Amino acid sequence: MRGIGLTEFGGPEVLHVVDLPTPDAGSGEIRVRVHAVAVNPTDATFRAGGRASQLAGRTPPYIPGVDVAGVVDELGPDTDGRLAVGDRVIAVVVPMRPRGGTYAEEVVVDERSVVHAPRGTTHGEASTLLLNAVAAHLALDAVNLDAGQLVAVTGAAGTLGGYAIQLAKARRLTVIADASPDDDDLVRTLGADQVVARGDGVTDRIRGLVPGGVAGLIDGANLDAVAMAAIADGGILVTVRGWSGPGERGIAVHPVSAFDAFTDTTLLERLRDLAEDGTLSLRVADVLPARDAARAHQRLAGGGIRGRLVLDFETSLAEV
Ligand SMILES: NC(=O)c1ccc[n+]([C@@H]2O[C@H](COP(=O)([O-])OP(=O)(O)OC[C@H]3O[C@@H](n4cnc5c(N)ncnc54)[C@H](OP(=O)(O)O)[C@@H]3O)[C@@H](O)[C@H]2O)c1
Q1: How many Å lie between the centroid of ligand 1 and the Cα of residue 26?
Q2: Which of 88, 109, 275, 306 lies in disulfide reach of 118, CB 3.0 to 4.6 Å?
Q3: Model pTM?
Q4: Would you state the torsion angle of the CA atoms of residues 194, 197, 199, 202, taken in this order, to the nearest 10 degrees?
């Protein structure tokens, strides 16, 4: 089979078509014929070498990719019977594992990380759900607020930010979101109760609405220490790229990693159900043939993408 991989870390151009042995599902594993893979910011981090220490000693090519949608085509021994060959599924993997990520025609996944795809969605749409919805869910668990309390979300127009808004509204929280003027309608449609202009001074604008500061802030824009000024004394800042403080004024800084919850099948099924019933909006910016992965990474680096870029693996990489 073929995949998209890299033999040295670097810019988008290091991504190329690679030949790989077709994997077989082992005990407790499922093999998925890949149809679509979402292109996430963490794939760019992986490609650029941000995960190099976790790949040390591994022989290239390294295969990026976390989210995947496709069809079950092999069940390993000792699987629990929840999934069958031919089922439409979505799954998540940690790409630093020995089997690599999801940018490949066939991917073998721990069965706990595979759930049926949301009904009524395309493979491309379905591939955009799990990584960011899991992260948003963990972020909301971490802020741990009650209905009616205030949470702010930065990077609100992004995939993680959008899910954070929608899951916060499902918990009946009040949401303040940041957005550029062009994204104001988008984040309101996602459920934001109040919107402030993003960028320099955003914390002053949040304080303008809530002079005492918000109880919690989910920092999808990676503002890190800058975000603290919007938060009430003793509140909580949830970060999504590992920043862990220090906090100030009794504010707790809580980094979350979706990777920690990838084998929580109950959570993955719950998020799938929320996508199926429309609570979570699956937003696809564009679908590109998998062989154009480098172009997808270039577009992601350029910013301004709304919704996820998706790689289509239905077009054979052998035609390249
Ligand atoms: N911890 C985890 O498990 C986990 C899981 C998923 C994602 N993440 C991280 O979460 C972050 C967001 O991911 P994503 O998939 O939502 O990315 P995304 O879809 O690209 O969204 C990021 C959003 O933030 C906006 N933004 C950039 N700089 C900003 C600023 N200074 N102020 C306000 N908004 C700003 C972007 O706008 P422009 O496009 O205009 O720049 C974009 O709308 C990334 O750092 C990603 O690595 C972490």
Answers
A1: 35
A2: 275
A3: 0.98
A4: -50
